[in-house]
């Protein structure tokens, strides 16, 4: 073993000497390259690879091995140089074209990658969906949509349900009838297929065609846009539109989302307050600029449950002259965004002019089942009044499932998803698992005790969603009394955020009702009130 090591070291030293003196240097350089690859010794490999490659410039196998090694060790620039040398040496080397294209794609050199993939496609004997999808990415990033969609079509699985959506987008683009909705559908279609390089390019196109939509909700797209260095471009789009239309809420929130993604938090707070001040001016058109404005005290929160009518309640409460709600629904501060700090949270509320009084609140249905939200809120607002809307657990879970389907977060058939979830309940303090669990989020008796540990029962108004939907004006006035403000009848009876779906699974319906029965009993005992969807106790 020792003798072998000594021999290897002597050979290595001899090869370095030959390389330096130019004596039998070609073979020596080849040996050194191969040895350092085997040893995975990047530092020594980099010392010799340039002269070794120059001496063996026509050795295609050696060049390919060297390029592959550099790529594995994330030395992409020298790897690109060697792959380009190989393609010049042998234009029919498919592997070199393919791997070169992948590296150029990583470096966002869209035109060069496109050219390389085109050459690779000419070398394959049969159509390659894999390569067509990569080619499509390069074309999409160049906003060459007719060509990009043609390439996606070549690489798409015809059996996927989204193929028809792709065809719809392609037809509209080919006929020059595309709108921002075309590119939003294309974004959703490509994202579903995990083609994010093309999806984000479609999203940018949709944004520029219509900056007035609520693009701030697409957090993942904002993060990807930062990686592609597109935030400055998007910021200018939103800033100019917001300047021209300061009353458009989504424009302001779009701009603040761009600023927040860049970490420019003081500008985020300023943008939120610009929106809040605009809404304040709408509320008090004659308000003098000399009147001092006070920071709001948040008085109430609608904490849930999700898919139980919280959107409608938020907008109904906003109509009352003695109520001020956050500039957007669902801040999710106490659950998902606590690390952003209270300055971020409070920047979403209207300031209160000196001499005026109203109650201020927000609605975020992620609070109810968050393990930490109650304690966090209590530490800052111990007198907070809580409004809880609870829907029939079965119909809430079904609505949650269909909501996720619309958002393209769920692709399993309903019965499959529910049977899997019935067999796999999460831990009750696992916030992320519960958030994505249709069935668990309807187990209200597991979540409300946390809130009652901190807030007195008199501060918690728990209502049935079905009663609210059947008698919205009466329930709304009950809430007015709870908040200590004059009762007002409901004028706008539009019900917001309603899904459209059919449910016909009698056996699953029964399984779900049986599952929720003990939780419903616990809920009624905990609160001392009954609900229209609970069944009477079983008698022996």
Give an account of the 3D structure:
By secondary structure, the protein is mainly α. The chain is built from 26 helices and 7 strands. The chain has a domain of 228 residues: P-loop containing nucleotide triphosphate hydrolases (Rossmann fold, 3-Layer(aba) Sandwich). α10 packs antiparallel against α11. The protein is elongated, with a radius of gyration of 31 Å.
Which second-level CATH architecture of the domain at 300-527 applies? 3-Layer(aba) Sandwich
**Number of beta-strand segments:** 7
CATH superfamily of the domain at 300-527: P-loop containing nucleotide triphosphate hydrolases
Distance between the termini: 82 Å
Major sheet summary line: 5 strands, parallel
| Percent of residues in beta strands | 5-15%
CATH class descriptor of the domain at 300-527: Alpha Beta
Give the neighbour order of strands across the main sheet.
3-5-2-6-7
Helix content bin: 55-70%
The gyration radius over C-alpha positions equals 31 Å
- CATH topology tier name of the domain at 300-527: Rossmann fold
For this structure, the quaternary state is single chain
Gross geometry: elongated
């Amino acid at each position: 073993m020792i003798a072998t090591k000594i021999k290897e070291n002597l050979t290595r030293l001899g090869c370095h000497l030959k390389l330096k003196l130019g004596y039998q240097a070609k073979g020596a350089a080849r040996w050194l390259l191969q040895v350092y690859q085997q040893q995975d010794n990047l530092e020594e490999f980099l010392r010799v690879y340039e002269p070794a490659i120059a001496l063996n410039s026509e050795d295609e196998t050696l060049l390919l091995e060297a390029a592959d090694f550099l790529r594995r060790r994330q030395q992409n620039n020298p790897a690109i140089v060697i792959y380009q040398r190989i393609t010049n040496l042998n234009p029919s080397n498919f592997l070199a074209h393919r791997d070169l294209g992948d590296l150029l794609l990583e470096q966002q050199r869209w035109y060069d990658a496109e050219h390389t993939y085109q050459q690779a496609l000419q070398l394959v004997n049969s159509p390659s969906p894999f390569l067509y999808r990569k080619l499509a990415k390069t074309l999409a990033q160049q906003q060459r949509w007719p060509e990009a969609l043609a390439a996606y079509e070549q690489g798409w699985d015809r059996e996927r349900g989204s193929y028809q959506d792709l065809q719809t987008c392609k037809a509209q683009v080919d006929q020059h009838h595309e709108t921002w909705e075309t590119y939003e559908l294309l974004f959703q279609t490509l994202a579903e297929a995990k083609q994010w390089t093309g999806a984000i390019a479609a999203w940018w196109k949709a944004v520029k065609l219509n900056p007035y939509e609520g693009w701030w909700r697409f957090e993942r797209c904002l993060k990807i846009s930062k990686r592609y260095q597109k935030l400055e471009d998007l910021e200018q789009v939103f800033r100019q539109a917001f300047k021209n239309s300061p009353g458009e809420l989504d424009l302001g929130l779009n701009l603040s989302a761009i600023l927040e993604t860049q970490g420019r938090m003081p500008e985020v707070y300023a943008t939120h307050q610009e929106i809040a001040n605009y809404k304040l001016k709408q509320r008090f058109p004659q308000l003098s600029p000399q009147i001092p404005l006070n920071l709001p005290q948040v008085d109430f929160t609608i904490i849930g449950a999700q898919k139980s009518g919280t959107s409608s309640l938020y907008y109904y409460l906003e109509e009352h002259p003695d109520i001020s709600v956050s500039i957007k629904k669902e801040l999710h501060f106490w659950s998902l965004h606590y690390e952003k700090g209270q300055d971020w949270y409070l920047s979403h509320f209207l300031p209160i002019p000196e001499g005026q009084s109203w109650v201020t609140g927000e609605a975020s249905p992620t609070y109810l089942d968050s393990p930490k939200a109650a304690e966090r809120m209590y530490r800052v607002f111990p007198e907070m009044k809580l409004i809880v809307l609870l829907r029939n657990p079965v119909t809430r879970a079904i609505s949650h499932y269909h909501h996720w389907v619309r958002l393209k977060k769920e692709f399993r058939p309903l019965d499959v998803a529910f049977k899997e979830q019935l067999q796999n309940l999460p831990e009750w303090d696992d916030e992320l698992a519960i958030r994505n669990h249709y069935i668990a989020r309807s187990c209200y008796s597991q979540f409300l005790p946390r809130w009652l540990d901190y807030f007195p029962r008199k501060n918690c108004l728990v209502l049935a969603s079905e009663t609210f939907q059947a008698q919205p004006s009466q329930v709304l006035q009950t809430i007015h009394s709870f908040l200590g403000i004059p009762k007002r009848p409901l004028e706008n009876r539009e019900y917001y955020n309603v899904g459209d779906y059919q449910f016909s699974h009698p056996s699953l319906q029964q399984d779900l009702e049986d599952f929720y029965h003990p939780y419903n009993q616990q809920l009624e005992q905990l609160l001392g009130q009954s609900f229209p969807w609970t069944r009477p106790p079983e008698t022996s």
